[in-house]
Amino acid sequence: MSAGESNGAAAATEPEAEPHDLGFGRLVSQTVRGRFLSRDGTPNSHKYGLGAQRAQRFYRTALSAGWPAFLGWSLGTLLLVNGMFAVAYLALGTQGLGGEYPSGVTDPFLRAFTFSVGVFTTTGMGALYPISTTAHWLVVLESLAGPLMFIAIGGLLIARMTRPRIRLRFSESAVIAPYDGGRGLMFRFVNVQPGELSDVKVRVNLARFEDIGGQREREFHQLALERSTVEYFPLHWTVVHPITADSPLRGVTPEQFAAAQPELFVHVSAHEDTFSTQVTSRTSYVAEDFRWDVKFSSIFVSAADGVIAIDVDRLSRLDRLAEGTTSVPAPGELGVGVP
């Protein structure tokens, strides 16, 4: 075998570099023009051909909805169903309900609604009773539907209360701020739920369009962080990517940055102590979410008992710096003055 053949064989057996597109795929990476992730971390994508999946989507919505919305929808659904049965009893006229009406209740719908609630909750029908066969079938149907609905709502309630989750609040903006004599890309976040998090890890990736061989292509870069993990997370965390001579952001200006249509992907994983399980959270920042010539304001406040405290309302507060402080590249990241 000749040297050329040997080199060719060796090249053929060398593994190709693993693509770093975060799982989107090269075709998607180059064709998508909007953001990949919304601010709450949900992917901006759709799948067709799977059907409506209404039950699965309803379940996920019920788990992720806020407590006021969940309780409001649950109560509203129960009232609506009982109202429908009450209308059905009234529609039967004299063949609907018989017996003595509750004292002081003169409205026919309220009488039927009270009877419906008694059947639905299996607490009793009082002095009222169904007359016709159709009315009896309505009572049978409602007496079955009531417990089943309470079981379903109770199951969702338990699932919500026992579902491990992480609730992080990220700063509204990512900033290019002074750092260690140069510049740094920064954002910060805080845990807003009472449960403690430990072994918190952060990965930050940058996607942007670059000129590669005369072609405008989207490239992905995993950014090196000042610190990528913390063991304890009692307060807040300012995540910093130092912009050095080795950074993909070296020498970048606000105009160049915006023209590259960047998106910063943030992935946070942690151990949630309440349920002793691993939880994750995601978010992303696009060019409009970046601020230059600013720095984060101090989030620390004085506490009466002398302990360290922060004010979460200050999480996104910024201090304005002189123009050109960070919108102009630092000499160190360009290799100027570096031995």
Please tell me about this protein's structure:
By secondary structure, the protein is of the alpha+beta class. The protein has two domains: 54-162, Helix Hairpins, CATH 1.10.287; 168-334, G protein-activated inward rectifier potassium channel 1 (Immunoglobulin-like). The protein has helices at 3-13, 26-31, 54-64, 67-91, 108-120, 133-162, 254-259; strands at 97-99, 128-130, 168-170, 174-179, 182-191, 197-212, 215-222, 229-232, 236-243, 263-272, 277-286, 290-292, 294-296, 300-301, 309-310, 318-320. The strands form five sheets. Strands 3, 4, 5, 9 and 12 form a five-stranded mixed sheet that branches. Strands 6, 7, 8, 10 and 11 form a five-stranded antiparallel sheet that branches. A two-stranded antiparallel sheet has the order 1-2. A hairpin with a 2-residue loop joins strand 6 (197-212) and strand 7. The radius of gyration is 30 Å and the shape is elongated.
List the helices and strands and how they pair.
Layout: H1 3-13, H2 26-31, H3 54-64, H4 67-91, E1 97-99, H5 108-120, E2 128-130, H6 133-162, E3 168-170, E4 174-179, E5 182-191, E6 197-212, E7 215-222, E8 229-232, E9 236-243, H7 254-259, E10 263-272, E11 277-286, E12 290-292, E13 294-296, E14 300-301, E15 309-310, E16 318-320
Helix pairs in contact: 3-6, 4-5, 4-6
- Look at the structure and name the CATH superfamily of the largest domain: G protein-activated inward rectifier potassium channel 1
Question: Taking all residues together, what is the mean pLDDT?
Answer: 85
Total number of distinct structural domains: 2
Structural class: alpha+beta
CATH architectural name of the largest domain:
Sandwich
Radius of gyration: 30 Å
Sketch the topology as an H/E string, one letter per element: HHHHEHEHEEEEEEEHEEEEEEE
Query: What fold name goes in the CATH topology slot of the largest domain?
Result: Immunoglobulin-like
Largest sheet: 5 strands, mixed
- How many β strands by DSSP? 16
Q: So what's the overall shape?
A: elongated
Measure the end-to-end span.
47 Å
| Number of helices, where a helix is a run of at least 4 consecutive DSSP H or I residues | 7
**In percent, how helical is the residue content?**
25-40%
Any low-confidence stretches, pLDDT <50, length ≥5? Answer: 1-17
Beta fraction: 25-35%
CATH class of the largest domain: Mainly Beta
